[in-house]
Amino acid sequence: MNLFDVLLLVVLCAGAAFFWRIRTISEYASQYLKHYCEQQRLQLVSVARQSTRPMIYRGKLDWRSNFVFEFSSTGDDCYQGKLQLNGLTVVKTETPPHRINMH
Question: Which of 16, 13, 23 is nearest to 63 (CA)?
């Protein structure tokens, strides 16, 4: 095994770790938004990751992720909200003004 093989192995392992972490963040965002929408009496329609970039958070390398989600308040409408995470920490959840279902 030469230096190139070791370097290639390190790069592959780092890529797999980054992929795994981003996947974990995406799953957490979906669970968080499902719970958030249940609390707000909204229907979660879809979740999509808009962007992810590396950042230093609390002294360690992690990912800042922005998600866009669609929700419905009455079942007949659809609105778009935003979620921002630093690692697995929710920074901001934004929803536009929407109708409230009184039932």
Answer: 23
**Angstrom distance (rounded) from CA 87 to CA 54:** 10
pLDDT in tens, 12-70: 999 999 999 999 999 999 999 999 999 999 999 999 999 999 998 778 889 999 999 99
Task: For residue 73, give its domain range.
Answer: 3-94
pLDDT (tens digit per residue) in 60-72: 889 999 999 999 9
19 within domain boundaries: yes
Query: Is the residue at 37 inside a domain?
Result: yes
C-alpha–C-alpha distance, residues 23 and 25, integer Å: 5
